[in-house]
Amino acid sequence: MASAPVWLEHPSSLRHDTGAHPERAARMEAIERELSARDWCGFERVESPEVDRAVLEAVHPRDYVASIEQACANGGGFLDMDTVISRDSFEAAVHGAGGAVRMVELLLDGAAPYGFSAHRPPGHHAERARAMGFCLFNSVAVAARYALDRRGLSRVLVLDWDVHHGNGTNDIFHDSDQVLFVSIHQSPLYPGTGPASDVGSGAGRGFTVNLPVRPGSGDQVFCALVDRIAVPLAHAFAPQLVLISAGYDAHAEDPLGQCDVSDEGYAAMTRSMRRLASELEAPVGCVLEGGYGLGALGRSVAATLAALQEPVTVGHGADHGAGRATPPEVGAALERLSEWWPALS
User: Fold this and answer.
1) Nearest to 283 by CA among 161, 128, 144, 84
2) Which residue, 4, 7, 83, 290, has most beta carbons within 10 Å?
3) Does some domain include residue 1?
4) Dihedrals φ, ψ of 203, to 5°?
5) What is the DSSP letter of 325?
6) pTM for this one?
7) Each residue of 251-278: pLDDT tens digit?
């Protein structure tokens, strides 16, 4: 019998010193203040281990990992115009990847019903051998690869609702039919990737699902894309594990995005994914990505945790926005994806 849901964390996330930067330690402090006031929403706090190097190197080449470790040992600095590291950043990054992997272990062992791995730096922009977009190692990709290689799974769903396209995750699994990657992201916006036309390559054609949305898109669009696209796709794909790249920078109060999602919008998307996972009898876990409006970040993470704890209702699809016109992004995606997923038509 599964025990309490788990919250994976490590103090090194606070020691990743980025100075006057949007991705800063205050993000974790804001989340901790909000969750502490809510008694951590019933989640058990677990300290994350360092990721096993062989597990990390199944995604990121050994030379790349060593280069990040050495750059941090040398005192850090800017890896590019957006991505800054300090002496303690490597420790934070390996615990971030380790937390995501440990969460998957606990979920697959039945030791927790669901989990949230909350660390910084975030990860979804990190490519196999390139740090970018504040990210060093792609924690959600490392966790998914671990589930496939070490735990014998054959199908993993990764839903990325960060306002920025998860280009690293997109590219790492681009030619794979074992990972269904679904990304809802603002376009145009950094990093400029993730057009609807990018559907994967080789055996992975149709398993990369990019759902770009316009600036100003809010709960109606994001929730409709989850309910009308991500959920039916998942039912057709039948994942054995559901992972969410949980970025909160599509929030209306976020300074880096121009979308209009609310606290309740994140709760609604979470309910849909929680319900989906229950119907598929697959565990679900979240990995923290972006979110730079501190109050909105804390509240939205808390809304996610609370929604994971709610009883599952019958039927799939949230009723958020019920009775409203279907956003055009949904119809376009249904038409585009029916080539690979006939069930959508």
Assistant:
1) 144
2) 290
3) no
4) -65, -15
5) P
6) 0.96
7) 999 999 999 999 999 999 999 999 999 9
So what's the pLDDT on residue 316?
43
For the segment 227-253, what is each residue's pLDDT rounded down to a tens digit?
Answer: 999 999 999 999 999 999 999 999 999
The SS3 call for residue 146 is: helix
Report the catalytic residues.
Answer: 125
How far apart, in Å, are the Cα atoms of 234 and each of 104, 294, 314, 328, 329? 18, 32, 17, 21, 18
The total number of structural domains in the chain stands at 1
CB 271 within 8 A of CB 102: no
For the chain, list the strands marked E by DSSP.
6-9, 44-47, 77-78, 84-85, 114-117, 156-160, 179-186, 208-213, 241-246, 284-288
**Residue 227: inside a domain, yes or no?**
yes
CATH number at residue 156: 3.40.800.20
What is the domain range of residue 219?
Answer: 6-344
- For 307, what's the count of Cα atoms within 13 Å in the CB-facing half-sphere? 25
Residue 237 located in a structural domain: yes
Q: How far apart are CA 235 and CA 241, in angstroms?
A: 12
- pLDDT tens per residue across span 204-225: 999 999 999 999 999 999 999 9
146 in a domain, yes or no? yes
Reported as a single tens digit per residue, the pLDDT across 312-324 is 876 544 444 444 6
